[in-house]
Amino acid sequence: MERLALVTGGTRGIGEAISLALKEAGRRVVANYVGSEERAKAFTERTGIPAYRWNVADHQACLDSVARIEAEHGPVEILVNNAGITRDATLLKMTYEMWKEVIDVNLGGCFNMAKAVFPGMRERQWGRIVNIGSINGQAGQIGQVNYAAAKSGIHGFTKALAQEGARFGVTVNAVAPGYIDTDMVAAVPPNVLEKIVAKIPMGRLGQAHEIARGVVFLAAEDAGFITGSTLSINGGQHMY
Ligand code: CAA
Question: What's the pTM?
Answer without folding.
Answer: 0.96
